[in-house]
Amino acid sequence: MRKLLVLALVGLAAQLVDGALGMAYGLTSSTLLLFAGVAPAAASASVHLAEIGTTLAAGVSHWRFGNVDWRVVGRIALPGAVGAFAGATFLSSISTESAAPWMAAILFTLGAYLLVRFSRPLRANRAAGRLRSRFLAPLGLVAGFVDATGGGGWGPVATPALLVSGRMEPRKVIGSVDTSEFLVAGAASAGFLIGLGSEGFLLPTVAALLIGGLIAAPIAAWLVRIVPAQLLGAVIGGVIVLTNTRTLLRAGELGGPVPALAYTVLGAGWLVALVLAVRALRRTRRARATVEAALAARPAAPVAEPATPAAESVHATDAAATAPEETRRLAAAVEG
Questions:
Q1: What is the rounded radius of gyration, in angstroms, for the C-alpha atoms of the chain?
Q2: 22, 31, 100, 303 from 129: Cα distances, Å
Q3: Considering the entire predicted model, what is its pTM?
């Protein structure tokens, strides 16, 4: 009973992080099960079976809070399910150990990019357009396969890639990735059922993880809505960097003082990025408040006779010319 209670708390914490950051439920839960001596295939199978319930609850919660882009969900979930089913079916014969350092290097690079990007004022990428299927489908296929074979990875692969594109709000990236994972978890569970049979699932463990995850799902969906995108991106970047540093250090067989030094340097860099993100967020809020105050202080325009298009153009030009330079600059910054 004590072990099941601990697993329920782990499921709660893992879902809270996953729902707020778009990753880490599978990685956290699978790591604990492997540490307890569970076979990799059984650990991944049990986590994915629990994720069917937790991702359904997370998807409904994100939908209720307006965090889901259904167009993206439709174009990434189906390829993700195909990749997850293939990864689960062939987990016993396919080893991802040799590919782990390369994947960790890619994720480390994406995490570092996010730290740099979100430590500066955000700018909308309006010229980029909408995400296309030729980008979303391969991303879902790879993320689904990595998720099933590694016991987790849907969020760490899909979330950074969508954030780096700059075409979606961070909260909608997280909500869409979490909602898509419902199909991925279901397909992976079906693959494990075919490959391992029903005995491959640890049902008490599944129940404990599921209960904790169901409790945390609505809280996480609410949290991601109120957390500023500036801080959210910086936090995600640091989590990705530190998580994949361990894999890279193990792959390089670096021991002695090297791991401690690496974590110290990266931790300090993460702290600096968070400080810069907070400063950028405050500057943006001050600029927005200044613009709103300036607009509120402007006197109402008197009612006049309809003007010709030429006269309207002249009046607009005069108004722009007489507007305070600082207000116009801040308005342009906030609009950007």
A1: 24
A2: 23, 38, 32, 40
A3: 0.61
How far does CA 295 lie from the centroid of its chain? 36
Buried b (16+ CB within 10 A) or exposed e, 123-139: eeeeeeeebeeeebbeb
What lies within 8 Å, CB to CB, of 143 at 6+ separation is: 76, 80, 83, 153, 154, 157, 158, 161, 184
Determine which helix (DSSP H) or strand (DSSP E) holds 110, and give its type and residue range: helix 100-118
Query: Cα separation of 95 and 37, whole Å?
Result: 19
The CA angle 85-48-191, to the nearest 5 degrees, is 25
- Checking if the pLDDT of 81 tops 90, the result is yes
Which candidate, 51, 5, 4, places its Cα nearest to that of 27? Answer: 51
- Which whole-number Å values give the CA distances from 315 to 150, 191, 307, 310, 322, in the listed order? 64, 68, 10, 9, 11
- CA 288 from centroid of its chain's CA atoms: 26
Q: What is the pLDDT of residues 278-328, one digit of tens each?
A: 888 888 788 878 887 888 777 655 544 544 433 333 333 344 444 444 444
Enter the DSSP assignment of 298. Answer: S
Instruction: Please state, in angstroms and rounded to a whole number, the distance separating the CA atoms of residues 39 and 87.
Output: 16
